[in-house]
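Help needed: design a sequence for this.
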């Protein structure tokens, strides 16, 4: 089944990442920030996670954005952006590359995955966080010509269908294809260092601006004490329900 294969791929990728991370220096850092809300303003839940990995060797920040919402009903539960503010003040950068698997959801609510492709998202500098008013960077789909395709859709149901999907997802021509469950972005941000951390973070949902949920402080710091034994990639889940 597609879902079993995807789970295997994710498990394999995680193992590779952990091996890679354990070999890095203590100047590297990892941070994970999660958000969950019971009502996105349309009466529907949202659940998402952002993982940040800073590579001191290349100066790159790799952001993995995941939609953890199970069997979404409407496209307003899909991820379309992420605002990031850094404690060291960075507000400019470039998007080196991005990757996600295209997913078509048919009218019968089945889905088909195709090749991994560039997401078509953009990185906007000098972005003002819509919830906290801080200045940073904005990974964004809505300002690009790719939109309204390539929003990140959550997981299918237990039968491996999007059984709950309405017409904004199932067989929707303008919104298909989606990006299935997660996308990875490699950013080059001048001045980012081992002292930097993501402070404010706001997740953006929907195919139009205005659906935002924020986390005002880091939810986990897993510095590369991993290198000293990989004993505890600690992750505390920061739940911040907002209506």
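Sure. Designed sequence:
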């Amino acid at each position: 089944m597609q879902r079993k294969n995807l789970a295997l791929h994710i498990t394999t990728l995680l193992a590779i990442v952990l091996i890679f991370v354990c070999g890095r220096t203590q100047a590297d850092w990892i941070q994970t920030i999660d958000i969950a809300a019971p009502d996105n303003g349309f009466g529907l839940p949202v659940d998402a996670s952002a993982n940040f990995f800073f590579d001191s060797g290349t100066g790159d920040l790799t952001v993995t954005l995941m939609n953890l919402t199970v069997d979404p009903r409407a496209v307003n539960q899909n991820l379309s952006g992420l605002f990031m503010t850094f404690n060291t003040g960075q507000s400019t950068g470039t998007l080196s590359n991005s990757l996600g698997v295209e997913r078509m959801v048919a009218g019968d609510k089945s889905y088909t995955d195709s090749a991994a492709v560039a997401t078509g998202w953009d990185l906007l500098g000098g972005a003002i966080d819509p919830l906290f008013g801080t200045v940073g960077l904005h990974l964004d789909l809505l300002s690009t010509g790719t939109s309204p395709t390539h929003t990140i859709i959550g997981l299918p149901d237990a039968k491996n269908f999007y059984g709950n999907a309405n017409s904004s997802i199932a067989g929707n021509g303008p919104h298909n294809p989606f990006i299935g469950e997660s996308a990875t972005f490699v950013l080059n941000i001048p001045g980012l260092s081992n002292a930097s951390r993501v402070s404010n973070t706001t997740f953006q949902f929907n195919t139009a601006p205005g659906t935002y949920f924020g986390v005002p402080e880091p939810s986990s710091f897993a510095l590369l004490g991993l290198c000293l034994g990989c004993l505890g990639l600690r992750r505390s889940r920061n739940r911040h329900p907002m209506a």
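Residues 2-228 form one domain.
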